[in-house]
């Protein structure tokens, strides 16, 4: 069992509040991702869970037990860092064996465990090398091996893939996801990469300024973002946010542009921001709001095409459309928008309506 409960967890560095009264319960066996921009407090949160940072205020519990003041080595957690943190003078075998050797595990048992882990991670042929003789991806596998070998119930990972190139990141991502499925342990994973968060997480905590902005499943975070910050942080290209107000007939108005909204979406006269994801557009059709726009730039991606267009009132929009769309720069196009897929935020508070 390994449920982790952060209750009003706070970290202050002098006058800087890095983590501000954070409440977060991570379930046994869950893959929780802490996602946010640089400086939002994700690493500090992870380090408090690991016991590597002293907690300024609040309580941390593992399975109900108060571990706020428990030293790291008593916490049954394994850490994996971006920098691998391998011992340069030890071989791969010795690096992986290290946590077991510390516990004075019998030699034969260590050998068996190291061999098993190395096979799982496909690094058995590298056991006699030193870290300097390995590629970045291989080093990170060794770091994962060292974490797995003592079978902890909690894995804490701080941007473990950010030093790897794009292709390797993808394959390591799927390796980590497989490991989570196989080990059935609790994972807490820090990243600023939205794609990594979306593909790995059972739930994502989106952080900003030491606070959680939204805690939800990847689908929830993407489909019902709690505010404009979360809406902008997830999605590539970014969501289009259009300032405007609610017209007397209940539609969204910005200059000459009108977009029909679901009935009763917000009160007439209210200042709002309308969110339109680039991929949530299609050909005009009955039941869809229709928008006319001038095409500024066409960027084929192969499977799809990105269009940068200018809608009435000089509103720039990015659209992601099927590759069959034959638009050229300078064309005027019409596209359809499903009112149910639009996002509406209050202009002042930036919170979802
Ligand atoms: P990154 O992705 O850049 O690592 P992060 O979201 O993990 O960012 P943290 O490293 O947790 O952010 O830092 C949160 C805040 O605390 C930042 O404003 C940072 O400058 C501050 N901070 C972190 N460590 C210290 C420290 N030792 N002394 C003072 N301020 C610190």
Automatic annotation (TrEMBL):
CDD domains xrefs: ABC_MalK_N
GO biological process terms held by the UniProt record: carbohydrate transport
SMART domains tied to this protein: AAA
GO cellular component, one term: ATP-binding cassette (ABC) transporter complex, substrate-binding subunit-containing
Annotated keywords: ATP-binding, Cell membrane, Membrane, Nucleotide-binding, Translocase, Transport
Record-annotated ABC transporter domain positions: 4-234
GO molecular function, one term: ATP binding
SUPFAM superfamilies xrefs: MOP-like, P-loop containing nucleoside triphosphate hydrolases
Homology family: Belongs to the ABC transporter superfamily.
Record's protein name: Glycerol-3-phosphate ABC transporter ATP-binding protein
Organism whose genome encodes this protein: Falsiroseomonas bella
